[in-house]
Specification:
Blueprint lengths: L1 E5 L5 E3 L5 E3 L2 E2 L14 H4 L8 E5 L2 H11 L5 E3 L10 H4 L1 H11 L4 E5 L8 H6 L3 E6 L5 H7 L6 H13 L3 E6 L9 H4 L6 E4 L7 H7 L10 H16 L2 E4 L3
Parallel strand pairs: 1-5, 3-6, 6-7, 7-8, 8-9, 9-10, 10-11
Antiparallel strand pairs: 2-3, 4-5
Helix pairs in contact: 2-4
Bound molecules: iron/sulfur cluster (SF4).
Iron/sulfur cluster binds next to loops.
């Protein structure tokens, strides 16, 4: 994998999902096969395959310190087009530095990751004023995770991270996106671990090809996404957990 240290020009960007987004890295080692963030390569000029390069914005905290004093406060998404807790974060701690600044300034934050490395920062997270932490959990069966998210942490580790965050008093959510085969078991697997759930389907152009590659066409039978999402939504409803279907 190619790792570069770069000086970014800005770090607190406007977002369509939340008010702002902070991406401490360009690229993502998790390299999920369905990742929509791979479109980034068009703008950054990387020739390596998605998942095979990561640029660390080593001046992220310096930039954020300045930008926080110049911009109107709003909710910050950490992160949008990379995983802020991908393996390199162990070495660089850029996400941790950014979170420290955001919390010091009292800005609301939504963290979203696939990695239990987020637990390293539990001391910061449990003290934050306005924070929610989401783990993306796409299936309850790790054999399907291995097909689509080969380099991302195993599902059981994500479930344990959610349980630990929730038990520590942090508001948690599960992002079931994209819904993968084996997702049916998630209502039970997430029981008691989350305050809310979001579900999205794999609606990207390459979904058909990906499913064919893994010989999972059966799962793409007409209505599979909708039926599974609605069944999950009803199950979460019975648990009293708010569940939002995105893009249905
Ligand atoms: S963890 Fe997120 S950003 Fe990283 S490759 Fe997977 S989907 Fe893309």
């Amino acid at each position: 994998m190619i790792v570069r240290e770069i000086q970014a020009r800005s770090i607190l960007s406007r977002s369509k999902i939340y008010d702002y987004v902070v991406n401490p890295y360009v690229g993502c080692r998790h390299g999920c096969s369905y990742c929509y963030a791979r479109f980034m390569k068009r703008f950054t000029g990387h020739r390596e395959a998605w998942g095979e390069f990561v640029d660390a914005k080593i001046n992220a905290a310096d930039l954020l310190r300045r930008e926080l004093t110049r911009k109107q406060p709003g909710r910050v998404w950490v992160s949008g087009v990379c995983d802020a807790y991908q393996p390199l974060e162990k070495r660089y701690r850029l996400t941790r530095q950014c979170l420290e600044l955001l919390f010091q300034h009292g800005w609301p934050v939504t963290v979203q990751t696939r990695s239990p490395l987020v637990l390293r920062d539990l001391d910061l997270l449990r003290a934050a004023q306005d924070l929610e932490v989401g783990l993306s959990v796409t299936t309850a069966e790790d054999r399907f995770r291995r097909l689509f998210e080969r380099c991302a942490p195993p599902i059981p580790a994500r479930l344990e991270a959610l349980a630990e965050l929730h038990a520590a008093g942090v508001r948690t959510f599960a992002m079931i996106a994209p819904l993968l085969p084996g997702a049916e078991g998630l209502a039970e697997a997430l029981r008691g671990k989350v305050d809310r759930v979001l579900i999205d389907r794999m609606n990207y152009a390459h979904a058909n090809a990906l499913y064919r590659r893994h010989q999972l066409e059966r799962e793409l039978s007409p209505g599979w996404f909708e039926q599974t999402a609605r069944r999950l939504s009803a199950a979460f409803g019975r648990q009293g957990v708010e569940c939002q279907l995105v893009f249905y």
